Amino acid sequence: MNKKAPTKEKYVIMPDSFKGTMDAIEVCRIMETSIKAYDPQAQIISVPIADGGEGTVDCFLHAFGGEKKEAQVTGPFGETVHACYGRIGETAVVEMAAVSGFSIGKKGGNNPSTATTYGVGELIKAAVSGGAKKIVLGLGGSCTNDGGAGMAAALGVRFYDEQGNLFLPTGGTLDQISRIETSECGRFLKGIQIEAMCDIENPLYGPNGAAYVFAPQKGADPDMVKDLDLNLRIYAQRIKEWTGIDVSEIKGGGAAGGMGAGAFAFLGAELKQGIGVILDLLDFETTLRDCRVIFTGEGQLDRQSLGGKVIAGIARRAKKAQVPVIAVVGTVKGDISPIYDLGVSNVFQTDPGTYKNEEELKRNCRKDLARAMMQALTHA
């Protein structure tokens, strides 16, 4: 290598996971090792990115410090689950997948009609009771379809059926809700800021809603999907009737089995793209001062990457600060030329395109990432 970077340069590393091969923390470590080999005196800020699903708490704690707090809560099918949330100063990071996640749901029957988000509410309650003033709620990887009703119930929202009986709604019983009381939840969460990490724009119900798009992945057959979707429609009507809030067309309302809508209506949560939440918490613009280059990446760069997720979200804000962004990605698919207009200066692909199967790719992905990083550094 002929070109050598000046010493004591500042680099920011902000990759997403390379799904199926490496999580974001491992990608960060490989990128950091490559930079240190290239410039031993480099100053490196490492921020692994998570989309709100499994691994979100670990990524936040790796990036911002803090500690894990344990709590014993209710799993998606009523079982006891030992879960953790992250505590960073007065901010608590709650990962829905840790309580009502798909991997947990598979152990209990894999039935989104009966699964509950009650434990997520218990985890939020534990965080607030422990002194948190802000909640970052990761929506992703859920096995539920209850519209966040279980979460709301754990925080004091009361749901009554036509006979006036208090009950805990699930995806299969949302249509039985006759009356909703939210005053207790409102008192408990007064003064608490809540941001929900939400990287999809699907509405609560309909052809692109929570049931039709995501419930089949959670074990729902076609008949169950129809019932779940109808119940979410009725749920939205009841929410509007008793709170005055219309969740029927909220972008992201269908996230995590309708948790987006529930968090918006009952918790007053702001639904934000995950990368935006992270950049704000990082104080991104201040972090970029005197930065030589940002390295970001993900498993596949394609047209969907242009919609405001990790690479695009970073590039847009870095462009305003006139800091170059280099994307190191697993593969490139289709025409990604618009990414350069957003602020990405170069794209490097780790997959050489010569592997015979996925196993071979997985076996070599780490050294391929290191190789691509060294190539990228010569263009930084």
From TrEMBL:
Q: Name one GO molecular function term.
A: glycerate kinase activity
Biological process, per Gene Ontology: organic acid phosphorylation
What SUPFAM superfamilies is this protein classified in? Glycerate kinase I (SSF110738)
Enumerate the InterPro entries for this protein: Glyc_kinase_flavodox-like_fold, Glycerate_kinase, Glycerate_kinase_RE-like, Glycerate_kinase_sf
Looking up Pfam families in the UniProt record yields: Gly_kinase
- Top-level taxon in the UniProt lineage: Bacteria
Q: Which UniProt keywords apply?
A: Kinase, Transferase
State the family named in the UniProt similarity comment for this chain.
Answer: Belongs to the glycerate kinase type-1 family.
- PANTHER family on file: GLYCERATE KINASE (PTHR21599)
Q: What is this protein called?
A: Glycerate kinase
Q: What is the species of this protein?
A: Hominibacterium faecale
Taxonomically, what lineage is the organism? Bacteria, Bacillati, Bacillota, Clostridia, Peptostreptococcales
